[in-house]
Specification:
Layout: H1 2-17, H2 22-28, H3 33-49, H4 54-71, H5 76-84, H6 89-102, H7 107-119, H8 123-136, H9 141-152, H10 158-165, H11 172-179, H12 186-195, H13 203-213, H14 217-230, E1 249-250, E2 256-260, E3 267-271, E4 276-285, E5 290-297, E6 308-314, E7 320-325, E8 332-338, E9 344-352, E10 360-369
Antiparallel strand pairs: 1-4, 2-3, 3-10, 4-9, 5-8, 5-10, 6-7, 6-9
């Protein structure tokens, strides 16, 4: 099924790339080898679309492919069709090897070569061939990025990918962004990203977020630690929101919002009357059986502190470990979070303002969890 899907993608794209009408070209010149080759490719693709195997379709149109080569020896589609129609895999590889020496831009030829690499389970060959295809035909990334992402899920592929990406192919960053959305591949995407240079400003934030979304908390923390060392930041670590959920995930709506102050010294809060919910949350590693949290704030009006609370749960789970409001904390709130069964704890500040009360405003001046 994977090979067939690849073939359908290759030949659909090939037909789009061939903008000329082979029928009209043949009417003008019956010996037009390029037109005959394109017509053979159309016939081949139609047969595959109707359910024929690539090999059976190639055998059916092989006479037309030979005719095309008789008039145009360099016609790549015809070479690809004859390779698929070959009686043995040795003959197929010989035809492909010779044809690729003449043309390394043909999607059809490259696709046929890719099929052979897949059949041989040659991971290095698959990735190298896909690299060529994506350099020559970047518009085909939609068809082939899923294939590459599937390959990257295999730990053994990392050295091969590292070698290919060392040359900074133009498809690198968009592929890593796409592959980071594949749960089976996201850990290796992060590992690969740490080995290569990138230009995408959003990829690292996506990786931290998607690793966490996949429940890979340790991997998310490891990538975050890498970013901390590689790209030092001047903002107070307790107030950062660049890489949530290891950094803060801040609410951002008309009803409630949290944002870093202009001087970077606090996180400003606002909750409109009649609204509520989580205004800020992040994940912490639970290094001890109990997590001590200390919060300094200036939330007003103070009468609403009973409507503001710190809540905690094991990361990725719904059951609360604790929920305690800010009332009677005298500006500094200290909480103990039982975390004996958690490797990582989700800590969140929740606020709700009654509809008859003034809007809640204030700042989180410091936040420490240990």
């Amino acid at each position: 099924m994977v090979v067939l899907a690849i073939w359908m993608g290759i030949h659909t794209a090939s037909l789009v790339l061939e903008r000329k009408s082979p029928e009209i070209a043949l009417q003008l010149n019956s010996k037009n080898g390029k037109a005959i080759g394109r017509l053979a490719l159309q016939d081949f693709s139609s047969r595959v679309a109707e359910g024929a195997t690539p090999e059976a379709a190639a055998l059916a149109v092989a006479p037309m492919a030979r005719q095309a080569l008789g008039h145009e020896p360099l016609q790549p589609s015809a070479h690809a069709i004859l390779a698929l129609a070959a009686k043995s895999r040795e003959e197929r590889k010989r035809i492909l090897e010779q044809a690729l020496k003449l043309n390394r831009r043909s999607a059809t030829l490259l696709g046929t070569s890719l099929q052979e690499e897949l059949a041989d389970e040659n991971l290095e060959g698959v990735i190298a061939t896909l690299d060529i295809i994506l350099r020559v035909h970047p518009e085909m990334s939609k068809e082939f990025f899923p294939v590459l992402a599937g390959a990257l899920a295999d730990d053994q592929s990392l050295p091969v990918f590292e070698q290919v990406l060392a040359s900074r192919p133009p498809w690198q960053d968009s592929f890593l962004t796409t592959a980071s959305g594949v749960p089976a591949a996201v850990i290796n995407v992060a590992e690969l990203r740490r080995r290569v240079s990138i230009e995408s400003e959003n990829l690292d934030a996506l990786l931290v977020s998607r690793l966490a979304a996949a429940g890979e908390w340790e991997a998310a923390q490891a990538h975050y630690d890498f970013l901390e060392k590689r790209f030092p930041r001047s903002t107070d670590p307790a107030l950062r929101s660049d890489f949530p959920p290891i950094d803060w995930r801040l609410a951002d709506s008309r009803e409630k919002r949290a944002q870093l102050s202009r001087d970077g010294a606090a996180i400003e809060l606002f909750v409109r009357a009649g609204s509520g919910g989580i205004v800020m949350e992040r994940i912490f590693p639970a290094k001890k059986s109990r997590v001590l949290v200390k919060i300094t704030h200036d939330i007003q009006p103070s009468a609403q502190l009973e409507n503001v609370r710190l809540q905690a749960k094991c990361a990725g789970e719904g059951q609360l470990l604790m929920a305690q409001n800010f009332a009677e904390q005298s500006g500094t709130a200290s909480f103990e979070v039982p975390a004996s069964t958690c490797d990582f704890v989700n800590l969140a500040i929740y606020a709700r303002v009654p509809s008859v009360s003034p809007a809640l405003r204030g700042s989180i001046l410091s936040f420490k969890a240990e």
